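Weekly puzzle thread! Below is a chain. First person to post its structure in token form gets bragging rights.
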Amino acid sequence: MKFLYKYGTRTNEVRRAKRELYFRLAMVLAVLVFFAVMVLVAKFRPRLEPEEEAALPDAANVGDPMANPRLIEMRKHVDQLLAEFLVRTETQPVAPEDLELLEQAIEEQRQVIRFRGSEIAPKSDLDRMEEIQTLYDNEVGGFLMAQSRRLEEEADRSWEDQDIEAAVDQISRAINLQEEINDDHPKSKDRDPTRLYELKNRKLAWQTEPMAGEADRLKEKAYQQVQDRQYDEARQSIARALTLQKNLNRDFRNSRLASISRLKQFEEASRFVNTAEDVHSVEILVREGRAALEAGDADEALAKAERAVALQNKVIAASPGHEADLRMRLAEIERLRETAASLPTYQRIQDLRRITREALLARDAEAFRQSVGEWQRQAAYMEQAFPRSEMMDDLDQPEIAFLSTNQEEIPAILEIVHDNLLPVPGQPGLLLYRTEVPQVLYSQITGANPSNVRLPSNPIESVTWVEANQFMKRLGWILARPVSLPTRDVYQSAIGEVRMGELSDQAWSMENSNREPRPVGTSTPNPAGFYDLLGNVSEWLANAGEDGQAVAIGGSARDARIRLNTVPEETRSTTERNRFVGFRFMVQTGR
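Winning reply:
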């Protein structure tokens, strides 16, 4: 700030003050750098050891280093040593005593470099030292390399002869020699970090491959022993295999065979082998439990399932990381257990179903009401107590619910239906409803009426083929017999021979119906006792094609009598609604 005060506060004077400040700071910094460099030079310059420096003559640190008599004499001695070495090795291999000459020359040249004390040695002396050291490192490195390669070849032969211990020992000695070259003789042309890396990798492979191979062999052996049901032996084999792999991962971390993924494979194999006996026992128990279930032995089936559940839980506890799949299997076994526990209730339900159907066949209203109520109660109990039981799929719950809900109306429906069933000529064991299904009967059974014109005594119309079959299923529950739409053969048999003159009374056609459906059973029946097989409304036949088409037969009130004489058929969609299409049904009596 005093510079600012000296030069005033105007802009140009402020700038001049700053420049003078920066210049003075730069001068101070330059002085500091100079002294720092001098300290570093004094610290790191070549110098003699204290005892060597004390032994030097007084003239050692003065004069031209290239003209110093003492230095000249020392350099000459170094040259003599080198010359003697070259002469002795020109016609014969290098011997240990020859290398001693180089070592002595190196030591002499080192003294030359150190002779100047606090002064820096001349570059020629440093280059000479580099030359001698390189010659020495090459000679020693070549000698050591020859031994290393010999040991490498011996190691390869031992490995081929499967003498692993000898191979590893020999390759280790070869590695030590190469390390000596690389570390102690860095100027040697035989210094080879790549070869050292390759040798170490080969040694590592020779040490680990036998261990890994033995571990793999033991793992496969354990798998085979599991297949042979030799579970104790399998557990011993996989334990040894896992120990080998753990040792490999611990002691040889750089090996490609010492990987986490490989260790996990052995741990997974160990889990599989150690749980194999329990898994097999579970499967046997499940098989035996199902056999007992099929034989109706609920107690035996339940005992087997309980033991299977306990073993499966043991397997889950021993298999961390695999709980999802194992718990799915546990759920299947628990379902078997629940199925076994539900067997007595299911058998009671089956008895009640049989009793109820027998009552329906006998048209015994009182027996029907008693049995269907108990049937419904037992089914509700089973649904609540054993919801996962496999027997739930065979409870006929829609049938139970329908019969129970409509138990008051069913006796009357039975009487109406049985009063209107007639045998079909030439079709033994079949009964056919003598009229088209009236709207009142359809409504009683389904609770619906899709008809376009709703009159209770008129035939059901505007009903799809699909809805007609749903009606058949419910009516079959009531009759306790198979009920279906008639086939073409049955329908034709019921019509019999068509006489043109009779159609005026037996068929509602466009000539006598004003083209509108009439109440069922108001025409004249045919010789077999059936009404309106021709005319009034067309009727669905049983079979439907894969294309979703079905046949409606017999014509309707909008057709001419002459067309009805041909027993007309029309192909329609099974989901089509037409106010001139209805149906009747046939019942299989089994007699």
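Puzzle host: Confirmed. Bonus trivia for everyone else. The longest helix spans residues 323-362.
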